[in-house]
Specification:
It contains two helices and eight strands. The strands form two sheets. The chain has a four-stranded mixed sheet, with helices on one face. A four-stranded mixed sheet has the order 5-8-7-6, covered by helices on one side. The mean pLDDT is 95.
Length: 121
């Protein structure tokens, strides 16, 4: 068994795709148009595991105050600056915990996204 994707409910599929592709560098895996909306999967190098952006007419995203997506990255500070330059919200500046450097941002729908550079991995 392996992780394939995590669903993230979004209000605007194009806005959400811009964040996850332009800011985070994820690439499209597949896009499905459905009777109710759009399902769009994105992942590193265009392959799973990744996120599944889910837009459905009448469905409001309900971001959690604590649940979050976490991405292993090579340079937390560099990625955070790119996200900031694109105008997205930085929730917590980088800090060290053990061998990890961690920071948090919000996607356009308010979902928390963690950047994690774990030197031991």
């Amino acid at each position: 068994m392996r992780l394939d994707h995590l669903r993230v409910d979004v209000e605007d599929i194009d806005r959400a795709e811009r964040f996850y592709s332009e800011a985070l560098g994820l690439q499209r895996i597949v896009r499905y148009e459905t009777e109710k909306g759009v399902i769009l999967q994105l992942g590193p190098d265009g392959a799973p595991p990744g996120v599944e952006l889910w837009f459905e007419h009448g469905l409001e995203p309900r971001p959690s105050a604590t649940e979050h997506l976490a991405f292993a990255v090579d340079d937390v500070c560099g990625l955070l600056e790119r996200v900031r330059a694109l105008g997205y919200e930085v929730v917590r500046e980088p800090w060290r915990i053990g061998d990890e450097t961690v920071a948090f941002v919000r996607d356009p729908d308010g979902h928390l996204v963690e950047f994690n550079d774990f030197a031991g991995r």
